[in-house]
Design a protein that fits this description.
71 residues; two-stranded parallel ribbon; 3 helices; 6% strand; elongated
Length: 71
């Protein structure tokens, strides 16, 4: 799989892979750009839940809460 952030695999990628099992069960999933690219490719149905930028996370949480408050 190609990545927007090409690099050699790291030891920590194994942990990212293990944590990815939660993706279908959460509203938002924060991971690094490398793992985000891979997950969006293999599980496109969950791509909208993936947050690749730590600084984007607060805004994504607030937006999700606003949507949930309307329902």
């Amino acid at each position: 799989l190609q990545s927007r952030t090409p690099r050699k695999p790291k030891r920590s990628d194994a942990g990212d892979l293990l944590h990815a099992v939660y993706l279908p069960h959460v509203d938002l999933y924060r991971t690094d750009s490398f793992a985000a690219d891979k997950l969006a490719h293999v599980a496109p149905q969950y791509a909208a839940r993936i947050v690749r930028d730590f600084y984007e996370l607060p805004a994504r949480i607030e937006a999700l809460l606003r949507v949930q408050q309307r329902t």
